[in-house]
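User: Before I run my own analysis I want an independent prediction to cross-check against. Here's the chain; please return only the structure tokens and, at the end, one sentence I can use as a sanity check.
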Amino acid sequence: MIQLGRYGAPRHTIAHLSDTHLLAGGRPLHGSLDTDATVSGALGQLERSGIRPDAIVITGDLTDLGEPDAYERLKNLIEPAAARMGSQLIWVMGNHDEREPFATVLLGDAPNTQPQDRVYDLDGLRIIVLDTTVPGYHHGDLDPDQLDWLHEQLDTAAPHGTLLALHHPPIPTPLELMAILELDHQTELADVIRDTDVRGILAGHLHYSTSGSFAGIPVNVASATCYTLDANSPPHTMNGVDGGQSFSLVHIYDDQIVHSVVPIGDPPQVAHFSDDVLNAFAAMTPHERREAFSNKRSTVTLDDLLRPRAERG
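Assistant: Structure tokens:
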């Protein structure tokens, strides 16, 4: 990364996807949604960009019905792309998932129905995965054993801090029906993570991108790749729509975390600045850059920038 301003390159980069909702056999979700295609589209965009995230985190509802074949399909879609990009793949349980096929197909574990909590280390950045699912239900919860386990993990700080990855976000939603499916025991979770090295919480579940804070910690919810819930729905209603699908890029700096929403799709390009332009600015002094790019009266054109510096005078 070429530093042209105050901030340099992030220490870590994460691609945050959520709510893929695949069905066995590639069946369309709700009879019309090609969930395989949106996942492939998101991964294709990410790979073509040249961005190489340290991890790809998928915060739950990986499948719609917990079918083993759906997990196999998702694994076969994502694992090769993650390998090509050199990204750690981090799976998170959601309320539509089932623990046994999740554990056996995605994690390679023996069949079990225990909470699928995990800890990952990304060169000093710790990611703790919490399974907030309740077997047989769609709301979320964390049992006392999970909270004790989390407390033990957080007793020792990580070199670059900790992110929590879970499905049910511990923040309010304007969609009243979704409040029925919220995370229980939030007060107890707040007591565990407050004043620790937890720097952020990654979540899904809501099917729209949003953010908030919990126990003084930023919370970022990635939208769904399958379909979205319209946060602008009239009061007392909830509408799922085939539009607005996206994923998030998470850039972790020493003292900040930045979340950027990336729409899934191939919209027409209306402007483009190539790496040649960036390199031309990099060759300038800070004052020259400011005058060429920031000054509203600047007469510098892209053609000027791309001419050899000696010819520009």
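Sanity check: The first strand starts at residue 12 and ends at 17.
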